[in-house]
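> Could you send the O-antigen ligase-related domain-containing protein prediction when you get a chance?

Sure thing. Input:
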Amino acid sequence: MYGSTILEKTIRFIVLGALFLLLLIPFLVPQSLFFPFITGKNFAFRILIEILAGGWLALALVYPKYRPRRSWILAAFAVFVVIIALADALGAYPFKSFWSNYERMDGWVTLAHLFVLVVVASSMLNTAKLWRTFWQTALGVSIAVAGYGFLQLVGVASLTVGFSSLSRLDATFGNPIYLAVYMLFHVFIAALLWAQAWAASAPGSRLGFSLTYGAVIVIDTMVLLLTATRGTILGLVGGALVAAILIVLFARDRKNSFVRPAALIIAGLLVLSGGFFAVRNAAWVQNVSFLQRLGTISASDSTTKARFYNWQMAWEGVKERPILGWGQENYALVFDKYYDPRMYNAEQWFDRVHNVVFDWLVAGGILGLLGYLSIFAAALAALWHRRRDEENVATFTVVESSILTGVLSAYFFHNLFVFDNVTSYMLFGLVVAYIVWRRSEAAGSAHLWAQSLPVKSFAYVAVVAVVLVWGAAYWINATALAQNRFLIYAISPQPGGPGKNLDLIRLAISQNSVGTQEAREQLVQMAMKIISVPNYDQDIKNQFYETAAQEIKNQQDASPLDARPALFLGLLHNAAGNYAAGATALLHAHELSPKKQSILYEMAQNAQARGDIAGMMQNLKTAYELYTPNVQARIMYAAASISTGNDTVADQLLAPIIPTGEAADPRIASAYLQTKRYDKIAAIWKAYVAVHPDDVQGYFTLAAAYYGMNDRVKATEVLVEVSKISPEVAAQAAPFIEQIKQGTLQLR
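Output:
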């Protein structure tokens, strides 16, 4: 019996230790891994969850006190996980839905780990003191992360290549969005602990913790603002308003010490919001990065428009598969199929809708979304439950319910414009676990099962649990980690030369794990670089080409609805000069994403290389007609029209954009130079310098055009005019003026 007690305490310590270690995940950025900001944190999250799951299972099988109690929240979460598992299994690409990839490390495996976290945390953190210590530790870690962010702000520390102290903070997250939502949770957690400490203490003893929690709120809010993440900033404001309004409305005792501060928060936020709206265009606002970015929120903002376009595309995908959706990690397929040509100047490979409602609609259909929303509904019901027989008795005080409702509201609003990552998942899961524990304890809910294994069998149960943990951890993580390391080695310079890189990338792909698609795409890019090197070993080139072509075909077979592998295959064939095969692959990519202009551009280049001028023109025309405000497509179509002698079409295309200066494109100049239409170049660049009088290169191009027209006087006048910009420009222009006078200027 004594041995079992020691073992019980040891395993309990391990489980609690793993829970507390989860809070340190933000600091993990192993540079030896592919996507270090993502993979390090996620592998640690999964391994720690597996460790604590094994220990908890051993404890729960023998000791009832470690078992979860019946909870509508846990039931809702479990149903959601099952629905998504079914959606993934029946989805468009089950392998990726289950495992995700290195860039995201999401998928069902992460969702399942999150559910385990909620179950274990709500069972093992089973006293108010434990939870308070846990949250206080979390706040301490958030201050350390904030400290790193401030060092980043002043340029002392950075993990991001090309970082500028004027950029958005990302600290150890690699993405400002991830840091922002991390701080969002901790602002509300600090407010919750402050409110609890205030209610539990007497007047005159509140200064110390008030200064501490107040400082945490101020510091974490500052870092959140410096991420310049607009959706999260609005989520913070909205969540704070929700919490404050609820306190004012539902605090029954009007002498409640929280009512007046809540009212002041409401008034302050409204005044600040209104004041900011009034001065958002002021010069001082434009000089403050996060304020300038916040002030650009509008329906016409390019980022906002891209979000709306994504939501519309997602809805088309939902209509095609309304019940269970496409499975996780498959929005990229919807994005390809229903691509909106108005997205021409945005990211070409969206894999998230950037809206939690549509993301779960696409991943799990209507059932998946309802399952997700049911977690929030159950949590809110638990927060605001009041006993009918004792009206004033509740699991949570009004202030606690209000603050926790505020953080759930802020998090949900944040996710209407971005998407989750492992730390936001984790913090959401921990908040849910806290609500589950509080509600279950207060209600005296029964444990999920009553039967227990004998205490004397605990040692054997623990051994079995350890074996299960190691087995699960190895199956889930070992191969994925190995593949990740092989991939890093493969894309790094090797003493053995490219041949060694090829061996390593083959080894990475052979693992058939999380990063197989990414490894195949890296192989294609490596092959294209090797092929482009002149006078290089032809045998190595052939090996890269043949291996890459076969592997990306394998990826096509694995995910037949994905346009990306087909496009990669087409680009690879083009790089190798195999234009016929390239045409076939690009046509397939176009069939999968018929409205994506970037694919049509590649098809046009391929047609030109094959001597199919009519095909080239048709592809460029189609790309232009998909969305005529697309200046890129207009320029390419116009340049091709000039080169093929169709000046009428070119004139029609360029006429609307000459006055705006947008027609002054090097491709247009090159096309007219080939046909020696210097008069056309002059007309276009004359309009351009009128719109952009400080662009020195524009004047030089205009002068060259006049010289090509044999109008040396105007050419000289233009260079004399540009010389007035600065002495440096005058020094540049002087030799050209002399060459024009002598007639020796060479036009290229």
